[in-house]
Design brief:
alpha/beta; Rossmann fold; 557 residues; Nucleotidyltransferase, domain 5; six-stranded mixed β-sheet; nine-stranded mixed β-sheet; 17 helices; endonuclease activity
């Protein structure tokens, strides 16, 4: 196939005056197809009325035909959520439209249709000449998906309307339109230097959550800076990112002025096969777009049966949840942790001795404590930050938005001290939380021996046994294995806790060649202190339960 495909124009009967067929002073005028340059008309523009881009875009899209799939060749019908996104992203004053939705809901097809509308100049009564449309993605192959949708829409046009398009499939993927002032749509990969100096009128950032952090941010910044030259717009579409620190998550959680956000993400903690939440993440399923509801439920149950990475991937891609898909080294998966959560009124009682696991924070970091009752399996956790900076500022710096503020409102996070959390007063406050419950022992990091000794004396715990544990390969591997075994055996029950959910979502394990595990952060800004304290407490509780009971010695008279 030639690299440069120029669609042939229809040939008519030659005129005696030498002019092309259909031209001349008596030729019928076309309504909205006033052309510039080589004057290639487009019949699709004749039916478009109105001045606002949203109405014009919807009218244009409804004239296209589905390029591929089960309904290939049929007229394009927009679902309610698609019309809502078009109206929101094309509203006055909006420069960036952000759409987060489950996989298979035609988000790329929708954005490609809008790209074609901009390419032919259908979004404005008087479009800018030499319009530029960018298809941006992590790599060329990924961006090619949206490009193929664009070409598919063009192939579905009437023969006379295809005359003005030139399709290039060589080293560069481009589509050029000659009429209405001209336009060029091209594909770029995540390299910001490749578009410096460009001035796009429309940019499509496909699957933004999958872009590499540094290269992706460079590309995004280069695109956004170029949009300002010509009052352009950007459409950022993707399934949900695996964590809150991802740049796509920041667009959803902290949208800057001039941003329209439409997110289809169900509440966290629901079963994977819950149909109402599946339809919330996949609104197209109820309107005949993409997967059917029956298929989604069946796939969810298969993922549940397989567990592990299959279940995490289904939650991330099909349920549009912020769940990490890197299962090989995570401490526990989201579903494994959710199996331990129960309603607050169903929690087992605080019965028997309590194991207090403590992760003492350093300068400007979190200190966390976990309370575990081995006899009943009850687990609780509390975290504390220093007062400076504020929880809101700290959440913004850590890339978790207002999560810390929500934790404080739920009673799971407190503030103490100025720049650091004072160990003695903090440990005393932790003991008060027990409300008189018996403390069997305190478990902590042996490398903080001096600080723990001083803190326990200040908190009145000098006589309580202290169990020193390390976070390296030796102690860490044993504690992680005991924690996992207790969790999987149903010996850990906890009320829904945003603090613990957040900590376990950032907790991974590093594995040495011998298969030993030790706890680590999934990202540098992650806070896994509560997870570390929970591992220490539960592992020590498991050791206590496994220890043989001492029998009383017989007394000889």
């Amino acid at each position: 196939m030639p690299a440069d495909e120029r669609v042939k124009r229809p040939r008519g009967r030659p005129r005696k005056d030498g002019l092309p067929p259909g031209s001349g002073p008596n030729a019928p005028a076309r309504g909205g197809a006033d052309t510039v340059g080589r004057g290639v008309p487009l019949s699709l523009l004749e039916k478009i009325r109105g001045k606002d881009p949203a109405s014009r875009a919807i009218a244009f899209l409804k004239q296209l035909r589905v390029p591929e799939g089960k309904k290939a060749g049929k007229p394009l019908k927009l679902a309610e959520f698609q019309c809502r996104f078009v109206r929101g992203s094309m509203a006055p004053g909006v420069m960036v439209g952000v759409l987060s939705i489950g996989r298979g809901n035609a988000k790329t097809a929708l954005s490609a249709g809008l790209a074609l509308a901009e390419l032919v100049g259908a979004l404005h009564p008087k479009p800018q000449p030499k319009r530029e449309i960018l298809f941006a993605a992590r790599n060329r192959d990924q961006a090619k998906t949206a490009f193929q949708f664009l070409v598919g829409y063009i192939d579905g046009l009437p023969e006379e309307d295809r005359a003005g398009f030139t399709i290039r499939r060589g080293s560069k993927l481009e589509v050029e339109f000659e009429g209405n002032g001209g336009g060029l749509a091209r594909v770029i990969a995540a390299d910001g230097k490749s578009i410096l100096g460009g001035a796009p009128t429309l940019a499509l950032m496909d699957e933004r959550a999958a872009w590499e952090r540094e290269k992706g941010d460079n590309l995004e910044n280069a695109i956004l800076s170029g949009l300002g030259k010509r009052d352009g717009r950007a459409l950022i579409i993707s399934t949900s990112a695996p964590d809150d620190a991802n740049t796509f998550s920041r667009w959803l959680d902290e949208p800057p002025p001039g941003t329209y956000v439409q997110e289809h993400r169900p509440a966290f903690g629901l079963p994977a096969d819950d149909l109402p939440s599946l339809l919330e993440a996949n609104p197209g399923a109820a309107e005949g777009i993409g997967s059917t509801p029956e298929w989604l439920v069946a796939q969810a149950r298969r993922a549940i049966a397989r567990g592990g990475s299959a279940l995490s991937s289904f939650r991330n891609l099909n349920r549009n949840e912020r769940v990490s898909t890197e299962d090989r080294s995570v401490l526990v998966t989201v579903d494994e942790w959710l199996s331990a959560e129960v309603a607050p009124d169903e929690l087992p009682p605080r019965s028997g001795p309590c194991v207090l696991g403590v992760d003492l924070g350093g300068s400007r970091s979190m200190s966390a404590a976990a309370f575990y009752w081995p006899e009943t399996g009850r687990l609780e956790a509390l975290g504390t930050f220093p007062a400076s900076p504020s929880l809101a500022d700290r959440g913004a710096a850590d890339g978790v938005s207002d999560r810390y503020v929500q934790m404080e409102a739920r009673g799971e996070l407190t503030v103490m001290g100025d720049a650091t959390v004072p160990p003695g007063p903090w440990l005393a406050a932790i003991v008060r939380h027990l409300d008189g419950a018996e403390v069997a022992c305190v478990v902590g990091d042996r490398f903080r021996h001096a600080e723990f000794t001083e803190a326990m004396q200040a908190a009145g715990l000098a006589r309580v046994p202290f169990v020193w544990r390390g976070f390296g390969w030796k102690d860490g591997s044993e504690d992680i294995e005991r924690f996992r075994r207790a969790l999987f055996d149903g010996e850990v029950q906890v009320a829904p806790s945003m603090l613990l959910r957040s900590a376990f979502s950032d907790a991974i394990t590093l594995v040495d060649p011998a298969g030993n595990h030790k706890l680590a952060k999934a990202r540098s800004l992650g806070r896994i202190d509560a997870a570390a304290a929970s591992v220490l407490a539960v592992a020590q509780g498991a050791r206590m339960k496994a220890a043989p009971m001492r029998k009383a010695r017989a007394a000889w008279l």
